[in-house]
Amino acid sequence: MLLILFWGIVISACDSSTSQLGTTYIPTDTTTSFRIRGYWVTPKKSFDFNTLVKSQEDILHLVTCSEYVYFPFGKLTDKSSLKTSLLKNFTITDCKRDTFTNIMLPSDPSDDFKQWSESLELEFGQNKLSLFLDNDPDASMHGYLQGGQIVDSNVVFSDSIKIGIRVEDFYKKFFDYFPAELKYRVIVFESCVKDVTHIYTFENGKLCNVKFI
Asked: How is the chain split into domains, by residue range?
């Protein structure tokens, strides 16, 4: 009887320890998951998780190779594509376009292909964005955010993300599982190339500001 009682205490202690370490949830495929402070986290395949940079105090910093980090409002081809995009309400306040010939491409007198790049400044109320677009055939990405800030819910990101979204719902856009025990006020997504960074700030559990740098 005493032996049974002893093992009951041991098992209970182990269960308590497991819960504190966050290993109650164990992913079926640990090669696609990673740990933060002892808790398993499973990113969605589309998030294309790369690296955990920092998890301290109230800041979570992740590196991702997802297209979302370059195109959080959907892909754009040139400034004319803004009219049918999620940024259709923005006004172009400045546009700089450069056209040039790529000397690395085979020359052909009959070929009128010209490379170009556009730097756009956009505004919609207090929301501001800086975009870079190009048609470089050798580029891995034909556009990305250079900077900006979103401060109100009139701007909708891909997958219905917007100011005011609950942090739990925000996690669901990028993770198949994210433990409720992990609490962060600032979530940073950094691209694996191009040095594009998103900074999502939450207050009282809701998204209140997004900065792009």
From this structure: 31-69+146-213
